[in-house]
């Protein structure tokens, strides 16, 4: 072994051992699960209350969820720097209250909870309270009475009445009475539905909550309708008319009233960031309780705000894709159009799904190459040519999204996840390669890039890989050590062994 290789081997070995050691420590001492599926899916939901100052004292009240429909809240945390803070209970409703004598700048308050669904129970039974009929103008009242009479005639019971109402309010061409009411309500569909149900003497109320989607940021509360049919409460989706509480819907508030009240502030906003993980409930709770005992947790991904956790959940997959690129280029000998392009394409595939992503990529690149060939006859400078290709790619993406939406192919709308500049640069590089090396080289490098991107996507989309990278980010040190070792590889690639296979037969 030469002296020049010894420092690299020592550094790479140290990185590999350090990453594996920290991982084993978290498994043995902190009860982190090494494999996915060993525990429940735990959701971390972070609410962010933002507002601008107004005159006078500040009083902010946020209603807190009660853990309905089988959801169990296992931990809560509040950020109230500079504010007086209390958690109060009134009429079986808990709410957080932040107070301050005055404020001179825009402020953000945080409330974070960790929850999991222990069972698939329905919402608990509750007494039905008749809603007061809305106060309407004479023309509104006439339209309301005609609409209720029409729905009564077409329905067989209260639930069918509700379904017909949702269909009528949400369809593209409602009848004149519905269209008139929607116009006077400023297109507030939920308010129209609730008032129609109240006019028909059907008890109804809103169920506000969060549609759980991993990695979502700046999400707002969604509303469902809950209607009493004389025996029980039934939940309806006001957009589709489907009945039943969705499995991925976390109930925040049930019934009337506001979720957020801000006194002494203006332009208030309530937004949510979501992230899920596969830690056991006891480990999630212990993570906060033992943060003083185990200092490592203070520097873990879980110590970050939820919005940043969602970002790093995707970023931590990039080193895995980089390892795939290194293996395919250094050991196998696959040629690609650039080093990082396959990684970026693989990231786009994670958002679009593999098949749809491949079709979108091939369509954009083929169309871009054709347009780039037309631009080459104009003798433009390199910077102008690339800028023109960027604009053309964006126009192609917009056209593809519009056409797919009109055809009802919603999956193609994810075309926006493709990195525009990388697509433009890829088209430019392939067109130059076409002119200098010919079609064969374009197919070799383009096909190699797609092959490596597909393999990188398969690695990143694997549930075990996603679990390990998020819960054990220290494994990135081990990946770095492996990549450093591969960087000194000078032997034959697999493609070269295949290319010279006939020479071995003569020996």
Features:
4-stranded antiparallel sheet; C8orf32 fold; alpha+beta; 507 residues; single chain; 17 helices; 12 strands
What does this structure look like?
This protein has helices spanning 6-29, 138-154, 158-170, 176-184, 189-199, 281-289, 306-315, 318-332, 341-352, 354-376, 382-406, 420-437, 439-461, 463-471, 475-486, 494-499, 501-506; strands at residues 42-53, 58-63, 71-79, 84-90, 93-100, 107-117, 204-211, 222-228, 233-236, 249-254, 260-263, 265-277. The two termini are 29 Å apart. Helix 2 crosses helix 4 (176-184), helix 9 crosses helix 13 and helix 10 packs across helix 12. Among the domains are: 138-254, Roll (C8orf32 fold); 314-498, no CATH class. The strands form three sheets. Strands 3-6-1-12 form a four-stranded antiparallel β-sheet, with helices on one face. It is of the alpha+beta class and 507 residues long. It contains 17 helices and twelve strands.
């Amino acid at each position: 072994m030469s002296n020049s290789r010894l420092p690299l081997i020592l550094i790479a070995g140290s990185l590999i051992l350090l990453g594996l050691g920290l991982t084993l420590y978290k498994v043995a001492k902190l009860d982190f699960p090494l494999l996915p599926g060993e525990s429940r899916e735990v959701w971390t939901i972070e609410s962010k209350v933002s507002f601008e100052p107004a005159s006078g004292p500040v009083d902010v009240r946020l209603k807190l969820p009660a853990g309905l429909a089988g959801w169990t809240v296992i931990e809560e945390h509040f950020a109230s720097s500079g504010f007086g803070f209390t958690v109060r209970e009134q009429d079986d409703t808990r709410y957080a209250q932040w107070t301050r004598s005055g404020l001179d700048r825009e402020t953000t308050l945080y409330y974070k909870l960790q929850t999991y669904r222990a069972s698939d129970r329905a919402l608990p039974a509750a007494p039905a309270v008749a809603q007061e009929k809305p106060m309407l103008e004479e023309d509104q009242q006439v339209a309301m009475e005609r609409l209720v009479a029409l729905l009564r005639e077409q329905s067989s019971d209260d639930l069918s009445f509700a379904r017909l109402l949702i269909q009528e309010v949400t369809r593209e061409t409602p009848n004149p009475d519905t269209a008139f009411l929607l116009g006077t309500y400023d297109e507030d569909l939920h308010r129209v539905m609730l008032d129609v149900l109240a006019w028909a003497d059907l008890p109804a109320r809103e169920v506000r909550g969060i549609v759980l989607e991993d990695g979502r940021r700046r999400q707002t509360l969604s509303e469902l309708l809950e209607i009493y049919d004389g025996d029980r409460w039934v939940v309806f989706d006001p957009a589709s008319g489907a009945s039943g509480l969705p499995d991925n819907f976390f109930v925040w508030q049930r019934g009337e009233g506001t979720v957020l009240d801000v006194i002494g502030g203006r332009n208030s906003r309530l937004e949510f960031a979501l992230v899920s993980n596969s830690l056991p409930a006891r480990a999630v709770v212990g993570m906060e309780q033992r943060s003083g005992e185990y200092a490592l947790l203070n520097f873990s991904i879980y110590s970050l705000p939820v919005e940043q956790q969602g970002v790093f959940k995707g970023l931590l997959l990039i080193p895995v894709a980089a390892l795939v690129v290194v293996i395919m280029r250094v050991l196998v000998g696959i040629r690609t159009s650039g080093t990082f392009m396959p990684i970026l394409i693989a990231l786009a595939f994670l958002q679009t799904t593999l098949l749809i992503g491949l079709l979108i990529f091939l369509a954009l690149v083929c169309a871009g190459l054709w347009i780039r060939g037309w631009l080459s006859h104009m003798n433009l400078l390199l910077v102008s040519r690339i800028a023109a290709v960027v604009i053309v790619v964006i126009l192609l993406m917009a056209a593809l999204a519009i056409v797919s939406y009109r055809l009802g192919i919603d999956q193609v709308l994810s075309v926006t996840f493709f990195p525009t500049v990388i697509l433009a640069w890829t088209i430019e590089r392939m067109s130059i390669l076409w002119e200098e090396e010919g079609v064969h080289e374009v197919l070799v490098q383009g096909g190699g890039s797609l092959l490596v991107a597909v393999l990188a996507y398969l690695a990143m989309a694997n549930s075990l890989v996603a679990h390990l990278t998020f819960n054990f980010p220290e494994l990135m040190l081990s990946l770095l050590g492996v990549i450093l070792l591969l960087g000194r590889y000078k032997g034959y690639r697999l493609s070269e062994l295949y290319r010279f296979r006939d020479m071995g037969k003569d020996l």
